[in-house]
Specification:
alpha/beta, 6-stranded mixed β-sheet, 26% strand
Length: 320
């Protein structure tokens, strides 16, 4: 009989399942009862400020460190290290031998996951050509730009065609062009059937890429669900500009509406847009513009995790 997992899924539908993971370092509790259910084939984001417990959680899932308590199951194994040949892992601390060439570096990382060096070199040549790095294949890695070197390490992460790809802050230090290339790579790997889980403190990446997210703050999961579900925690926002300065129509505007220039900005009332629109027209507002905007993930993050956690995300948390 299949054991029923969190969110109503069975084990076979989950690439990762973690239940009540706790990790203590001396007197410090870095992770405080985190539970996750990562669907097979999904792109899943761990979203939260630095120090929230994301890296510690990923290290426990990879078997690099053991939890103080709680259980984890990765690709059907209770011991994550048994699944290592089927996992590609990019740690937060990047590491490439600077004197090694990209071709040999990728082949070496593949060998650590069970490939022969000859097969690793063959796949490295193909991957480097696909990413316009063929001319750099045999040059020392120290001669590459930071973005190119990170691309090489990412190619080494996927050279063995893993079923599960784990990326810890993969966008850190990349410029906008290389961030976009990395997003393309993540989507391509997902299209090829891999499950992707990555941590980030940059909300825009999670909003663009992820099907599901877990928001982590102070070592706890404060939200686990789809990006749409997170955004649906907030009501849509109305932006209204009228020709009339006053009139009966103003009774339809919530008392807590704010002014931004010549616009009223407020949450869409419970009745929806139709009663609001009727009241504005019947009241002689003279509508110049009326836009209804769905809240973004950043607004949802603030509502779910709080202002303190949002402030800890820094300016990059607002989108890159």
């Amino acid at each position: 009989m299949l054991r029923q997992a969190q969110h109503g899924r069975t084990d076979e539908a989950l690439a990762i399942e973690a239940i009540d993971l706790v990790k203590d370092f001396a007197e410090t509790r870095a992770v405080n009862g985190i539970s996750l259910a990562v669907p097979t084939g999904s792109i899943y984001g761990l979203l939260g400020p630095n120090g929230a417990g994301k890296t510690t959680t990923l290290r426990m899932l990879m078997g690099i460190i053991d939890p103080s308590s709680g259980t984890r199951r990765v690709l059907g194994r209770e011991n994550p290290l048994e699944a290592a040949p089927e996992i590609g892992y990019l740690p937060e601390e990047r590491g490439l031998y600077p004197a090694m060439s990209p071709r040999e570096g990728i082949a070496f990382l593949g060998a650590l996951r069970g490939l022969t060096l000859s097969e690793g070199r063959k796949r490295a040549d193909e991957l480097l050509a696909q990413h316009n790095l063929a001319d750099w294949a045999r040059k020392p890695i120290r001669t590459l730009s930071k973005g190119m070197a990170q691309t090489v390490q990412l190619l080494g992460t996927v050279v063995h065609k893993p079923r599960l790809i784990v990326l810890d802050e993969p966008f850190s230090g990349l410029d906008a062009i290389n961030q976009a290339r990395l997003e393309e790579m993540i989507r391509r790997e997902a299209d090829n059937g891999a499950t992707i889980i990555f941590s980030t403190h940059v909300i825009a990446h999670a909003e663009r890429l992820c099907e599901r997210i877990a928001i982590i703050a102070a070592g706890k999961v404060v939200f686990d669900g789809s990006v749409a579900e997170a955004r649906d925690r907030l009501r849509p926002i109305v932006r209204l500009r009228t020709r009339a300065a006053d009139g009966p129509w103003k009774a339809s505007i919530p008392a807590n509406a704010r002014r931004e220039g010549d616009e009223f900005v407020f949450e869409l009332p419970e009745g929806g847009p139709e009663p609001l629109l009727k009241a504005l027209i019947d009241g002689g507002a003279g509508i110049e513009t009326l836009a209804i905007e769905r809240p973004g993930l950043h607004d949802a993050f603030v509502a779910i995790a709080g202002n303190q956690a949002a402030a800890a995300m820094g300016t990059t948390g607002l989108g890159e």
